[in-house]
Amino acid sequence: MENKLAELHKDHDPATDFLPINGTDYVEFYVGNAKQAAYYYQAAFGYQPLAYAGPETGVKDRASYCLQQGKIRLVLTTSLDPNSEISEHVRKHGDGVKVLALWVDDATHSFNATTERGAKAHAKPEVQEDKDGRVVTSAIHTYGETIHRFVERKDYNGPFLPGYEKWDAKPLAKPVGLKYIDHCVGNVELGKMNEWVKFYEDVMGFKLLITFDDEDISTEYTSLMSKVVSNGNGYIKFPINEPADGLKKSQIEEYLDFYHGAGVQHIAIATDDILSTVGELRNRGIEFLYVPDTYYDDLIERVGKIDEDIDDLKKLNILVDRDEEGYLLQIFTKPVEDRPTLFYEIIQRKGAKSFGKGNFKALFESIEREQARRGNL
Predict the structure, then answer these.
(1) Of 16, 167, 320, 345, which sees the most CB atoms within 10 A?
(2) Is residue 260 annotated as involved in ligand binding?
(3) Tens of pLDDT along 9-32?
(4) Are the C-beta atoms of 23 and 236 separated by less than 8 Å?
């Protein structure tokens, strides 16, 4: 299947794409304490302060901090009302992703085109304006309580969105080389994967890229199934996972138990120099999953010649996989919340367009070790 990845988007015709997407606009988290979460993402991951919205800017019910690194924008939002939707989301799920915002040229068309095809509306098209111009947004529901917000910002020159002001703060730390969101992974309940794949195909015009079954993603104890969908130009890629039968509780089941429903499992972020990025993240206290040293014993035999020194990769615990287009390097953090839910992948692609299938067994054995320590395997 993976040898087809290079062919996926060669026939994409923008003229026939009913939902053209320019990329990820931002990812918004609902959190218990946005000020402290913003400090963490600045100090640990090197995100830079961009914009702020809250009582000081005329927004009375919440506080939101927007951070940026490369093309990535994160928004961290806390409710000031204990009875709000935001507070209920945090009570139920813990800190987690609420909004996967998509940058489009026409948010009204995007809303109409998707709701006509069966999407459940979350917010009708709305125009927001301030001294820096106008932004049009709309939103639809996807798996769990996650939403896709369409953002049309061609007539806007402000720091982020109306209601936000430039966040003039001294940077806490230098960027670590994070460039853009490579893909974003959702965990859904047993039997729901194909339903959500069909949603992305029928409602949003995405294409199925690749399927991984329980033989591809399994260990002695657990397994899962995954399908990857992508929009026409390939800028947006959403793998969707569901549990599969196994002897013990899979990582997907653990996530669903602690998140109390479907949601975003991990966000993969691209870098051009994974050794530098991961080295600096480790220096700042970010914890990564551990893979035994034996993984590297036959690495060259498995993946062929690579530019990096094996000892450097081994020291940082970075994984390598190859497809017909080249190779990739990847590593996964431990969960960044107290609940074993959201984590991050750091990925560097050197031609490869796949998702590290050759590393699945080592990765999931590592996850199982962490599950066992938590008593959840």
Answers:
(1) 320
(2) no
(3) 555 565 578 999 999 999 999 999
(4) yes
